[in-house]
């Protein structure tokens, strides 16, 4: 089983369009799919789920869709916080949070604080998240520390760099799932996905259910992760 699953929840708009509904209905249905996925991952002992909810590029959408999404995030967080707390979910929001509406920022702080000691699944919600933005911010923080004389630039290694990312403290995802058939990363976890196995499914995000998640896990289990080395089975054969 993967310890950490990352998911690009794509296809809400297309799901709605196919039903002759406004895009907003697709986003609403998408929330239900995320709740189901979180519960299944938690039940199956997966340590972390990182979900892409809103990218730094999604501000380019029509204003009414952006504000619908922000209000939806607020409502869902308000409604679900108690059960997240009860189910021991440890929730974090990754991204440039200062650009979000202030009410949402307040709810995010509250949810983060109230679940910080929870011992269950790590649930990371990427909100106003962009992989490039994350890398630039990390570079800025390291440069500031170096300029102050607190950090020797020659000592910057992968661990020191990763500690400045939004995902600090979280192991890299083992499996990336992207729904709705798009074969791209869309600025998601550019650093962290270095060796993730990628599963792309044509299922639209609101239709992503237990059987879709199982298919992703079965696909993952068929992979041979070499990390640049050799297939362990073939390596044995070489030595024997
Ligand atoms: C993903 O669904 C949700 C967000 C990006 C917020 P989309 O809204 O991108 O759905 P499609 O790709 O238009 O179908
Ligand atoms: C990626 O989906 C972002 C989220 C799922 C939040 P998009 O729908 O924004 O990606 P593109 O535009 O198709 O690459
Ligand atoms: Mg999309």
Question: How would you describe what is shown here?
Answer:
The chain contains eight helices and six strands, in the order βααβαβαβααββαα. The chain has 240 residues and is α/β, with parallel strands linked by helices. It has a six-stranded parallel beta sheet, sandwiched between helices. Strand 3, helix 4 and strand 4 (122-129) form a beta-alpha-beta unit. It starts with a strand and ends with a helix. The protein has helices at 12-18, 23-43, 63-86, 102-115, 131-147, 158-162, 210-221, 232-239; strands at 4-8, 48-55, 90-94, 122-129, 175-178, 197-200. It has one domain: Decaprenyl diphosphate synthase-like (Undecaprenyl pyrophosphate synthetase). The chain is globular. Bound molecules: 3-methylbut-3-enyl trihydrogen diphosphate (IPE) (2 copies) and magnesium ion. Residues 8-10, 52-55, 58, 182, 184, 186 line the site of one 3-methylbut-3-enyl trihydrogen diphosphate.
Gist?
The protein has 8 helices and 6 strands.
């Amino acid at each position: 089983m993967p310890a950490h699953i990352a998911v690009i929840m794509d296809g809400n708009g297309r799901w709605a369009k196919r039903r002759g509904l406004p895009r907003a209905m697709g986003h609403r249905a998408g929330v239900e799919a995320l709740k189901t996925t979180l519960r299944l991952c938690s039940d199956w002992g997966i340590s972390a789920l990182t979900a892409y909810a809103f990218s730094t590029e999604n501000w380019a959408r029509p204003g009414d869709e952006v504000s619908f999404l922000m209000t939806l995030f607020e409502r869902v967080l308000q409604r679900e916080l108690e059960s997240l707390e009860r189910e021991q979910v440890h929730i974090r929001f990754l991204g440039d949070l200062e650009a979000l509406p202030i009410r949402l920022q307040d709810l995010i702080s509250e949810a983060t604080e109230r679940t910080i000691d929870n011992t269950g699944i790590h649930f990371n919600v990427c909100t106003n998240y962009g992989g490039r933005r994350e890398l630039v911010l990390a570079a800025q923080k390291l440069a500031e520390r170096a300029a102050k004389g607190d950090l020797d630039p020659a000592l910057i290694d992968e661990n020191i760099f990763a500690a400045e990312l939004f995902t600090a403290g979280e192991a890299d995802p083992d499996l990336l799932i992207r729904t709705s058939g798009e074969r791209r990363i869309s600025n998601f976890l550019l650093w962290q996905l270095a060796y993730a196995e990628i599963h792309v499914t044509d299922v639209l995000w609101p239709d992503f259910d237990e059987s879709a998640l199982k298919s992703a896990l079965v696909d993952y289990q068929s992979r041979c992760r070499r990390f640049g080395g050799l297939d362990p089975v073939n390596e044995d054969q070489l030595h024997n």
